[in-house]
Amino acid sequence: MYPDLEGKTVIITGAATGIGKACAIRFGQEKANVIINFHSDKQVKETEKIIEEIEQHGGKAIAVQGDVTKEEDIKNLINKAVEEFGSLDVMINNAGIENEVPSHELTLEDWNKVISTNLTGQFLGCREALDYFLENDIQGSIVNMSSVHEIIPWPHFVHYAASKGGIKLMTQTLALEYAPKKIRINSIAPGAINTPINAEKFSDPKLKEGVLKLIPMGYIGEPEEIAATAVWLASNQASYVTGLTLIADGGMTLYPGFQAGKG
After folding, report:
1. Domain, as residue range, for 190
2. Whole-model pTM above 0.90?
3. Which reaction does it catalyse (predicted)?
4. What does the H/E/C string look like for the chain?
């Protein structure tokens, strides 16, 4: 547990499902004030359940609908945080999408949709959080959600891989730029995680077996394991850490084909 997070205000984008949901609940367990950003009307009931669970742990939470690709929606997230809880301390840019398309068939519309959500959306979250931190002299923390595919090429997902590679250098550049202000900016690169977006793939035994062969630790991670890295990065325990991509992948980026001396 991280006592310094108690009472801090945290925005988490894409927090109705998967890793974002796990982050929201974990920050709630740390008794933080959580703004749960969600996109679809269909997610309202899920956010209500998340708020209830957070409050059971002693945290506070509100849900705010919004599209991370729209400047006005990101500004609204910041405004709602300040109106409800008086400040903003941590920004978790988690919202992201993916879809599989052979690169030669990828439409500009699909390219733009993924880049807009995954990269531009995170930039807008960073920019608005930084603007608030600077204006109010807050030594805040930003955590961006990247992927092992900022390192590992991924055929049929060129738009996704490009967005995650962009997040890596965006995070490092912003971290360098705002380090003198003691604002810390880091990212997390999850590997294969048991989230709704992966549910169909992992429900197929053959596909799941193929994924497991790429993970030296031998199991698919849970969203809560990623949330654990997010609260650490946001806490004072990581006070000297900035510009880091924390890889949480069970060893997927360690060239598993060379395991046991092969190669």
Report:
1. 3-249
2. yes
3. D-glucose + NAD(+) = D-glucono-1,5-lactone + NADH + H(+); D-glucose + NADP(+) = D-glucono-1,5-lactone + NADPH + H(+)
4. CCHHHCCCEEEECCCCCHHHHHHHHHHHHCCCEEEEEECCHHHHHHHHHHHHHHHHCCCEEEEEECCCCCHHHHHHHHHHHHHHHCCCCEEEECCCCCCCCCHHHCCHHHHHHHHHHHHHHHHHHHHHHHHHHHHCCCCCEEEEECCHHHCCCCCCCHHHHHHHHHHHHHHHHHHHHHHHHCCEEEEEEECCECCHHHHHHHHCHHHHHHHHCCCCCCCCECHHHHHHHHHHHHCHHHCCCCCCEEEECCCCCCCHHHHHHCC
